[in-house]
Amino acid sequence: MHLKRLYLRGFKTFADPTTLDFDSRITAIVGPNGVGKSNVVDAVLWVLGEQSARTLRTSHLQEVIFAGADGRRPLGMAEVTITLDNADGALPTDYVEVEITRRLFRSGDSEYLLNRNRCRLRDIRDLFLDTGLGPDGYSVIGQGEIDAILSVRPEDRRELIEEAAGVRKYRVRRDEAERRLEDTRHEMRRLEDVIAELASHIEPLRGEAAAAETYRSLDARLRELEVRLLAAEHVARLRRLGRLENDRLTAAQDLESCKTEAVRVAQELEQLRADRELTEARLEE
């Protein structure tokens, strides 16, 4: 695995798009002070996921974006792309050429791309575990860091040795597994507290459940009886309605008979009146 290409745009002093091609013959970058040699190293660290503004020689991360110069306006984004030759399979991926891109906007938003596909910073860090390449690896060392490495605490020096020996990824996985195990223990303790709290409510809830079951049974029985009562009342009212209907028909028949009798009596009265007048006339004669 070796560095093939570095593309910079808007990163620190690289305002214009700049591509640096590295072949196997390049062993060093030389030049006078102020030409940007350290900025190239910072760009490599930054694109590999460096999050420390101090390591990048800035007060905050947004300062890596080109801030403007005479006749040049500030830019709104910094972008760095590093291309690595993975023909030897040093990186755990099927790509022969690995391309990592990092972008940062003045709004604070950032994004990472792996072979032009969006990914997480963790994906990039996992890719470079035990390869020596990364913001904490031994492959990229800035000015004055040799003395710092020699004077660091034994724990920090051990991390560099583990990185070089290729065992750091196992330690990272172990730490991750221990963290997950501790999280699981914490969750289990919380579950035990919840179970204990719920256990204290079991007996009262059983009594409430029994009362609720009794209520449900009695309520169902009440509804059944109410339905039967309504049905019985309905039948009784239907029967009474039938009787009333029969009485109405009988009364109607009696009324018709009375009307007929009244007509007959009226006719008979008229006949009697006629006979009386005839009799009075004869008597008068």
Can you put this structure into words, describing what you see?
This protein has 285 residues and is of the alpha+beta class. Helix content is 53%, strand content 13%. It has 6 helices and 6 strands. A 6-stranded antiparallel sheet has the order 2-1-3-4-5-6. The model has no long low-confidence stretch (mean pLDDT 85).
Short account of what is shown:
This protein is of the alpha+beta class.
Provide the fold topology.
Elements: E1 2-9, E2 18-21, H1 37-47, E3 77-85, E4 97-105, E5 110-114, E6 117-119, H2 121-127, H3 145-150, H4 154-165, H5 168-199, H6 202-284
Antiparallel strand pairs: 1-2, 1-3, 3-4, 4-5, 5-6
| Shape category | elongated
Low-pLDDT runs: none
Percentage beta strand: 5-15%
Percentage of residues in helical conformation? 40-55%
Instruction: Tell me the Rg in angstroms.
Output: 52 Å
Structural class: alpha+beta
The largest β sheet comes out as:
6 strands, antiparallel
- The secondary-structure element order is EEHEEEEHHHHH
Query: Helical segment tally?
Result: 6
In whole angstroms, the N-to-C terminal distance is: 163 Å
Lateral strand order in the biggest sheet: 2-1-3-4-5-6
Work out the number of β strands: 6
Labels describing this entry:
single chain; about 280 residues; alpha+beta; 6 strands; elongated
